[in-house]
Design a protein that fits this description.
144 residues, 9% helix
Length: 144
């Protein structure tokens, strides 16, 4: 196996080339739009026979800091992850964990019953169970 060393500068220029190709995958975002939040939790949305289950990773977020807005075909998750404060003087060598306000909105694959929503935060994972309306009729473009 032959290994080839590539300089960091050459690698950075290659990333810029790939990011600039139409349809290419942007590897680095240069800035945020004014309405974007600093971070957003990752989510899984799973449709079952009579319900939709959403799981969101929210490590370090307290229940009191989460707001869940449920509409007929949309769920919006808002909240804040607060940074841990260390007592006494501290000098960080690396600061990578995200914190701050977050907001995620997810369109649902069907119409649901907002009043039957169940949510549980356990070990940093928020599980939301949304029951389908009228036998789980799938949402179409004409549905409002």
């Amino acid at each position: 196996m032959v290994r080839k060393r590539i300089s960091v500068l050459r690698l950075a220029s290659r990333r810029a080339e790939v990011a600039s190709v139409p349809g290419g995958v942007p590897l680095r975002r240069r800035g945020r739009l004014p309405w974007e939040e600093p971070w957003a939790p990752v989510m899984d949305v799973c449709e079952k026979e009579d319900r939709v289950v959403i799981e969101a990773e929210l490590p370090g977020v307290e229940t009191a800091d989460i707001s869940l807005l449920v509409h007929h075909n949309r769920v919006e998750l808002r909240g804040e992850k607060k940074r841990e404060r260390h007592s006494g003087p501290a000098s960080y060598h690396r600061l990578e964990r995200t914190s701050g306000a977050f907001r995620r909105a997810v369109a649902l694959p069907c119409v649901i019953l907002p009043e039957r929503t169940q949510a549980l935060l356990d070990n940093g994972v928020l599980s939301v169970v949304l029951f389908k309306a009228s036998g789980g009729k799938r949402r179409t473009v004409r549905d409002k």
